[in-house]
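S1.2 Input.
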Amino acid sequence: MRNRTLWRLFTVVPFLAAMLLIGMIHMVMLAREQVMPFAEPYGRATLLPELASQAGPVQITGYQSFAYRSGNELIYVKIDNEGRSSSVVRPVPDAELFQSYRLIGEAKAVWIGASNKLYASEWDNENWSPRKLLTETEINGVQALQAGTDKTILLTYNDEALIVGISSGEDAPNWIKLNASGIKQVQGYMDKNGMLSAVYATSREGNTALHVAKLDTKSGKTVVMEKLKDLELVNRYLEDYTLYADNSLLKVAYTISSAKSGKSSLQMLTFPWNQPADIQDERIDLPSSETSDSDTILQPIFSETDTGEATLVVSSVYEKNRRLSSQEVYELSFHETQLESSSKISQNDGFAQYPKLVQSSDTRLAVWLDSVNEASYRVYYATDQQPYRERMNRLTANDLRTAAENVPLLWGISLVTWFLSLKWIFLPGIYLLVLSAFWQHQYDSRPRLHFFISLGMYVGVKALFIRDYRKAEALQVMPEAFQPILSYLFMLMIMALLAYVSTRLWRKGLDDRNIGLELFYFVLLDVFMTNLWYSYFMSPAIF
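S1.3 Output.
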């Protein structure tokens, strides 16, 4: 009697084996879906341990090195030739008054401090030097630009003027004032010929306009100073912009955001220096999926290679499939004034923002932030170095553990679809009931024949309901190899064969074996396995 009971309990083994097998497949597939494919040519992003406490792109301090603020500390990060990071922590030069700041290399900082004055300090002997006042003029913002190896350009502004400070080595800045009122933002770009191009946004009586100033930093002469464009903003506002200039063109990429929806669009303004009347302003759309364009593009910033080629980096909506939607970093390439291509740099599955791309002759380094809350941001980086990609582009134990946490949800979904799938056994079930009730002798004399007739009915009904698993939402997350109908039918036959073999094996020793019970057991096992497998594709959950 005990052996009989143990044998009956042992019949649940096929169901447990199915759960274990399909659960492992789900875990691996979920992990691959969440982190793959890795953005090319960059590897998987690396998270730095220290959080950033200020919104905005990290500041480049040298070759393969950058820095950002974390509380009352400055984190200086270096990336080696294999893509590994090391960091040095320094205190901020002035904890109480350290507001808008710019780092110049690894040894100097400028910032807006007390009474909106501009201060500077240098790192020497493991300490910051006492702060030094750079100008008595009150300013609202500052940007630091490098011109060669020893010249620094400080681009500042207040409500009345655009003020440029030019310094060489340790010399105090020589200030040049350009009259311009109502400035709200300013961005500058230095070319290799010593020309400073500055685009500033003004706001007067609710009207916003973009202006350009071109200054020869060698002679201090203003070459160009004029309005670029009046922006017609109804329930919208200018958010961010960036610029790139060469001898022939000025390119300004800017984002306009809706005050109602919060969505942002990207515009590209092109200004020919020799033909200013031919100014162009076009909207740039990026695909977020195969069927729609992104409705949110944020924080554009130009990046320049050693050869002078410029690409644009933005943060934009990315929809991988119905389960995965995120804000990722994109790199945009242009041919003259037209968008030529776009490629994804990050796959962070979060809200990547404030991107920065540093390009040299043989290496590209991308850095971006991901918000934790209003006062702290995760800092990620990725590089195209071959050792880095080989090390990072693989599944990790943490990927599998995160995916395994979602497997019980899929099993719950499989239980729901299991009840819905009982329609598959309705026809063969009716056949067996009618046969046993009215033609019992036929049922007893030729059980093998009637088993395979009912089995054929069952498989036929499943094939007729094939569209249950071929909805557009399911196909989005199915691997291409599983999408053809023949692949589905082949998998169905494999599962049916496995279920039948298990049936014959595990029910062989039972005294109450009969054709109806055997088919019912077979159907339960097959439906269970099939629904566990397909719950992955049918799940509407967002992971």
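S1.4 Remarks. The chain has a mean pLDDT of 82.
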